[in-house]
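User: Quick one: structure for sequence A, then sequence B.

Assistant: Sequence A:
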Amino acid sequence: MGVPTMAKEATRLRLHVRGAVQGVGFRPYVHGLASRYSLAGFVANDPHGVVIEIEGERTSDFVAALPREKPPLARIDQISVQEIGSLAADEFHIRASEQGRVSTRIVADAATCPQCLEELFDPNSRFYLYPFINCTHCGPRYTIAERLPYDRPFTAMKSFAMCAACAAEYADPGSRRFHAEAIACPQCGPRLNHGVADIAAAIAEGKIVAIKGLGGYQLLCDARNHEAVQRLRQRKQRDQKPFAVMVAAADAVGEIAEAAGSEIALLESAARPIVLLRSRNSLAPALAPGLSRIGVMLPVAPLHHLVLHALRSIHPRADGANGAVVATSANPGGEPLVIANDEAARRLAGIADLIVTHDRDIFTRADDSVVSVVAGRTQFIRRARGYVPEPIRLARPVPPVLAVGGALKSTITVTRGDEAFVSQHIGDLDTAEGIRFFEETVRHLVSTLDVEPAVVAHDLHPNMASTRFAEASGCRLVPIQHHHAHAASVMAEHGLEGPVLALVLDGYGYGSDGGNWGGELLLCEGARFQRIGQLAPLKMPGGDRAAREPWRMAAAMLQSLRRGAEIPQRFAAQPQAERLVALLDQPDVPTTTSAGRLFDAAAGLLGITEVQSYEGEAAMKLEARVRRAAVFDRGWAIEGGVLSMHPLFERLAFDVMDPTQGAELFHGTFAAACVDWIGRAARSTGVANIVLSGGCFLNAVLSEQVQHGCMAAGLNPLLPRQVPPNDGGLSLGQAWIAALKINESDSLEGSL
């Protein structure tokens, strides 16, 4: 972003600043800057960002310093400057916000800043041990905002009248809490219903505690207590799916996981995501069974700091180890995150031994974000609290679009100008509660951004809840093929319109021919795509049930290798194994080109996972076995654009090998096959930009090996970095394609 060069004689200026400049201490920052340069005038929030008028001899110094010294949470997209007439003012002040059609935005929630943390544990501070301390550099934003502009009357703090001390800081330009909309203290702010000592004692005793966090309730228990973790699993009905862990500070991470510098930086960032790290296996075995990585996070809110401090000081461990607590979403049965107090009492009573609530509302639920570092870069697994609603910058302005995503790991996207706002992770739309959360998110994001969508983009699948919502909207509809949307999500964030080659590897997507797609090589340009390759079809006995039971896909692979007679013996523990032999010979068994089902088949054949208790379990446990990065042989065949991995599975099925050896052979060979497949297509099309997307690219081994292989071949591989490669990024791709379709349609009409 460039700053206009101002003539020295310009002394009366109006500036408009656009970006994330509300609720981040920007107005007090401007006030201090104006005071430094002895300027008169004012600053105010307006519907587009912040408006500043200044008069004095050093206005050019002010303009130069404005973007250079901005507050840590501020994001400046544009500064416009114009000369105006005299302000007739002799001082600088902050004005009330201007109303109107909104085109600014709210920043994401931010973890407790170092200054507030110091005050939290300072006995001389009036915020000593206060679990809701915050300032303009930290604290809740998006989750407590009802609408824009971000002023206290439009937040969850509107019901808390400031005491004299808070009001004085709020009005003091020299204070870090000058116009901090969420300011509060023990005298006037929100209150907990249980003391921190009681919370820590319950955790130390092996109990399960539900606490109200920034974006919703969380469930906590001692991560070193195997019985407590098992009890949490039983109550939450979560058999195997891993739990995240919270520790007090970065210096405690090394006790439980291996972390590189880039991973520590992510842990300590204001977003405070859960970061996947290689486990040292020092916590309860029930925490992440069968996996090599665990999710680790640092405290987000002051209450987290207080609880972990109390565990260390009041209830120290006999072995001297730092406290580590499970910190998982309070969403029983896969339903949306609990945010309301009465809802917590009703839905969490059978899970938590202690429910800790407070009287500050959460307006927008936002789960913890989950990230990992792949090939030295951040990769999202779940994008939510701490990152939403930060927009993704598009290559150019586009018409307003609402994109409603898919059915799993759902998000929505709303475009405004050259920005795409991807919602927080919504989750699966297979329950009434999940659909209500989805509809609530649509209403909130569209309203907050003050956008009227020109079209609604949706998945091609006719029976998704999101598709039905789109059809009922009354808007112009743009159906988008699932894997095309995956490819376009990467194109959107990298500013590409094509041509690109896209390798999309995932579990399932409704194909243009109505088939079960999931391993596709696409040629994309503008709003169009061509399917130029696919994985060899494999039978999927039992339909969707085969996605939950990897042994079925392993059996299908055996049958395709002409060894179906061995199925009953290999899968003797499965009651349906005998019947499956006959079923696989039927002509009407559905087939799939899914890469995800290949991972399942490998896990089933190697005896790693025969039946899954959560989505992706087989693939994750298969990846966890890999120790060496690139082990492969020529275990594939490519003919007519179709990639067959049957030669690899011949070895996996019939050579004697342990699961680790088999997992390494599968990953290395499949990655090498993908690079060969891409390379052939690149040579025949002349296209060097390679887009890699789909849920299988959450697999770090596959992602790194395909990326490195493409680079070694002189190609330019591009992975999603601002949204997940799984269905969490689908809505961004839908929005980009729909916007391009509108532009193409408008151009066509204009040429007639």
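Sequence B:
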Amino acid sequence: MTIARHLTLLSFLCTMTRAADSQQPRPTSLAHRSTVYAPHGMIATSQPLATAAGLAVLERGGNAVDAAVTAAAVLNVVEPPMTGIGGDLFAIVWSAKDHKLYGLNASGRSGSLMTSAALLAKGHTTMPQESVEDITVPGALSGWDALLRRFGSITLAQALRPAIGYAEGGFPVTPIIAAEWATQVAKLRNDEGARTTYLVDDGRAPPAGAWFQNPDLARSLRLIAEQGIGALYGGELGRRIAERVRALGGYLTVDDLGKHRPEWVEPISATFKGYRVWELPPNGQGVAALEMLKILEPYDLKALGHNSAAYLHLLIEAKKLAYADIARYVGDPTAMTLPAANLLTDAYAASRRALLDPSRAADRPAPGKPLTASETIYLTVADSAGNMVSFINSLYDLFGSGVVVPGTGFALQDRGAGFTLEPDLPNTVAPGKRPFHTIIPAFVTRPDGRGGDAPWLSVGVMGGSMQPQGHVQLLLNLIVFGMDLQDAIDAARFRHLEGRRVALEAPIAETVRRALAALGHELTPEADVAFGGAQAIMRLPRGYAGGSDPRKDGMAAGH
């Protein structure tokens, strides 16, 4: 079907639903906050104490990377369900000095004992979930260190000081984090280390406003500050982790930890409406966001109307096409038979676009749970010199595997759940292999008028498979609809789940819901669906604009 035919059908549907929508306005369910503007530097994180710690670094003359690592370490303390040195990290850095982007993949590999044969022998037909068997090498700490060594002006020990202070002295737990924490009590009770570290009083999660301390984490961070990251990667801390994981039935050895190295990578990109959108290459799912944009670019999206049925249908169907591709082709780059760039050619995008039916929802196979889970923090920082960093750190599920080695104070990720036991795929489980990753930082540049690129936006939308579809929705809000930065973050979102199932945030009108249902979409109650949490910083001609998602506890702040 031609693009013209697509647009005729979509415009008709859009006209019908717009007319009805104008008669039945639906109030927003999200409290509004203003975009933050500042002349010198900006930071946006998902927790106020982390934002404050990073801002203090900027105000003392530190750069964007110094502030990002400092904030990430504080988040390990104050947002423990989501992040920490037991997880993985990806980052994109704009270097003002070099006038270019750098990518960092600090994700860990599977243990040398993690084989499909070992998992099948235990009776698994699919990868176990939230289990010690899913624990892979935690790469985040190595990423913090690599970022500081290449771009920082402070040491790792200095960056860890605020986190150590909060872990030792304590802090009041914020509301959204407390609510997520409370859902994990049963999981935390199942592990001795998790129980003693993260449950209080008679085995409860700390409620909002409760004072929480983690002296074990303070000791671990202090050990790392004194001995360097070698304490985790093969040293005293690493030996304790490996021994405990093996005792509980996992597949990690101390040699696996000692062999870990982060990797500097070249970001990948696609152009859209004159902008260039950057993501990191596999083993992450960033290519899905770029493929969605490639599929969508020829359409007059603005004419369809923001969050109209026609508009949402188009985005949902593009998402299905892109996710079908990453489920089949993406994994550890060394195991991929199709380069990610092949999914981003004009010809390939056109071939996928031709499969999009503007009058009916497709019933495509679900990508599976490895593409839908992830508990994550995203933060972004910009400094007075023009450096910017897009930074994401994750444990995968809430509290990761649920395993805390007694005395260490931090949860170990369960990123191995992102593998598949299906044979002969790039993401098939094997020793020493990076699993498919959901966490993706993004960056946007635009022409600088001299034949190069200029930084425009550092952005991320945490939340598993929500991330690429969240990136696309937020970018369209900005680039196509010209929204203010905070308005673009606040705007109601959809989240496609699997098959024809899709959830819509409450502000999306009932008439739109009925129109989508008529197209064959199966609307899922939104109460139990997470629609992601965004943080973003935009470069202005002078200074910065910052925004932080009201769906999280955080804030943007500048100086």
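Residues 12-29, 365-373 have pLDDT under 50 and may be disordered. Residues 3-23 form the longest helix (21 residues).

User: Thanks, that's what I needed.
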